[in-house]
Write a structure and sequence with these properties.
This protein is α/β, with parallel strands linked by helices. It has two domains: about 120 residues, Rossmann fold, CATH 3.40.50; about 100 residues, Winged helix-like DNA-binding domain superfamily/Winged helix DNA-binding domain (Arc Repressor Mutant, subunit A). About 40% of the residues lie in helices and about 20% in strands. The strands form three sheets. The chain has a five-stranded parallel β-sheet, with helices on both faces. Strands 6-7-8-9 form a four-stranded antiparallel β-sheet, covered by helices on one side. α1 crosses α5, α6 crosses α7 and α6 packs across α8. The chain is elongated.
Length: about 240
């Protein structure tokens, strides 16, 4: 059975182009052009992915994303935005969007991002079903992969979906150094040139949430000229 994708986009030309290419890729696509109706369809369930425009009539994409993430069921969200400022992208990611594309975008890249999200979801589902779903503890950091919960010194920390996946990738391989390109491939599911800054911004936000002093991190360490790694307790 093909994946079902809900596209909430008020630009009919863009929506139609997205529908054609995703349908050609084998996905079942439903289009909605209004924010209020889009939220209603999204919360009714049954979709495997929601492609969400930021600027919509009735209700904007940020509010829709916020309400989707307030629910217990998890559906990946790929956000589309015509805005180019970093703050708009950060807001979307902080509210729980799994990925974003800035208009104008390549439809080929959109399809690649969709495929990458589905690969990541399948990989995470397999991990949760296996032994790798066992809780991880490193110093005061506690990670429960099955419940997707994180605590630091006993206090719960709210992470976005991508921040959690990034932290889990590090925590499962303490001491191993990952380049930005490797993290893009393993956590985001794609490795396009020029997107290494995405890794940097996510790590900065992740450090701000789990480190006592983000300027002098104790967990996610920078390996200059190479990438990043999780501290290794055996090397302490």
């Amino acid at each position: 059975m093909s994946h079902r994708i809900l596209v909430i986009e008020d630009d009919q030309d863009i929506a139609g182009l997205v529908e054609i290419h995703l349908s050609d890729a084998g996905y079942s696509v439903e289009l909605v052009s209004d924010g209020v109706l889009g939220l209603k369809r999204a919360t009714q369930g049954g979709f495997d992915l929601i492609i969400l425009d930021l600027m919509l009539p009735g209700m904007d994409g940020l509010e829709i994303c916020k309400q989707i993430r307030s629910r217990s069921d998890y559906t990946p969200v790929l956000m589309l935005t015509a805005k180019t400022t970093e703050v708009d992208r950060v807001l979307g990611l902080e509210l729980g969007a799994d990925d974003y594309l800035t208009k104008p975008f390549s439809v080929t890249e959109l399809v690649a991002r969709v495929k990458a999200i589905f690969r990541r979801v399948e990989a995470l589902r397999s991990q949760r079903d296996g032994s790798s779903a066992e809780p991880i503890r490193l110093r005061d950091l506690e990670i429960d992969p099955r419940k997707r919960n994180v605590k630091v010194a006993g206090e719960s920390v709210e992470l976005t979906a991508r921040e959690f996946d990034l932290l889990l990738q590090f925590a499962r391989h303490p001491g191993r150094v990952f380049s930005r390109a490797q993290l893009l491939e393993k956590v985001w599911g794609y490795g396009h040139d020029g997107y290494e800054h995405t890794v940097n911004s996510h790590i900065n936000r992740l450090r701000a949430k789990i480190e006592a002093d983000p300027s002098d991190p104790a967990y996610i360490l920078t390996v200059w000229g190479v990438g990043y790694k999780m501290f290794d307790p055996s090397e302490a």
